[in-house]
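Re: the 63-residue chain
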Amino acid sequence: MMYALLCLVSLAVFGFSYYQYTQTQGNTLWMVLMFLGILAAVAFGVLFLTGRVNKKEEIHITE
Protein backbone atom coordinates (compact mmCIF):
# COMPACT_ATOMS: atom_id res chain seq x y z
CA MET A 1 0.00 0.00 0.00
CA MET A 2 2.92 2.32 0.68
CA TYR A 3 4.13 1.90 -2.91
CA ALA A 4 0.73 2.98 -4.21
CA LEU A 5 0.85 6.16 -2.12
CA LEU A 6 4.40 6.89 -3.25
CA CYS A 7 3.29 6.35 -6.84
CA LEU A 8 0.48 8.89 -6.40
CA VAL A 9 2.86 11.39 -4.80
CA SER A 10 5.28 10.92 -7.69
CA LEU A 11 2.46 11.54 -10.15
CA ALA A 12 1.58 14.71 -8.26
CA VAL A 13 5.22 15.85 -8.50
CA PHE A 14 5.12 15.10 -12.23
CA GLY A 15 1.90 17.08 -12.68
CA PHE A 16 3.14 20.07 -10.71
CA SER A 17 6.47 20.03 -12.54
CA TYR A 18 4.72 19.86 -15.90
CA TYR A 19 2.54 22.82 -14.97
CA GLN A 20 5.55 24.85 -13.82
CA TYR A 21 7.52 23.83 -16.93
CA THR A 22 4.79 25.14 -19.22
CA GLN A 23 4.39 28.35 -17.20
CA THR A 24 8.11 29.21 -17.14
CA GLN A 25 8.61 28.67 -20.89
CA GLY A 26 10.87 25.66 -20.58
CA ASN A 27 12.98 25.96 -17.44
CA THR A 28 15.34 22.96 -17.34
CA LEU A 29 14.88 22.34 -13.60
CA TRP A 30 11.18 21.62 -14.03
CA MET A 31 11.92 19.35 -16.99
CA VAL A 32 14.34 17.30 -14.85
CA LEU A 33 11.78 17.10 -12.03
CA MET A 34 9.17 15.97 -14.56
CA PHE A 35 11.45 13.18 -15.75
CA LEU A 36 12.29 12.07 -12.21
CA GLY A 37 8.62 12.22 -11.18
CA ILE A 38 7.41 10.00 -14.00
CA LEU A 39 10.35 7.62 -13.54
CA ALA A 40 9.59 7.28 -9.83
CA ALA A 41 5.88 6.82 -10.53
CA VAL A 42 6.57 3.97 -12.94
CA ALA A 43 9.03 2.35 -10.53
CA PHE A 44 6.66 2.56 -7.55
CA GLY A 45 3.77 1.38 -9.71
CA VAL A 46 5.72 -1.70 -10.79
CA LEU A 47 6.75 -2.42 -7.20
CA PHE A 48 3.13 -2.10 -6.09
CA LEU A 49 1.81 -4.40 -8.80
CA THR A 50 4.50 -7.06 -8.35
CA GLY A 51 3.79 -7.14 -4.63
CA ARG A 52 0.14 -7.97 -5.34
CA VAL A 53 0.99 -11.23 -7.15
CA ASN A 54 0.19 -14.34 -5.13
CA LYS A 55 3.48 -16.24 -5.04
CA LYS A 56 2.44 -18.97 -2.59
CA GLU A 57 -0.49 -20.47 -4.46
CA GLU A 58 -0.03 -21.97 -7.90
CA ILE A 59 -2.50 -21.00 -10.57
CA HIS A 60 -3.33 -23.55 -13.26
CA ILE A 61 -4.90 -22.84 -16.60
CA THR A 62 -7.46 -25.60 -16.10
CA GLU A 63 -8.96 -23.97 -13.01
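The mean pLDDT is 86.
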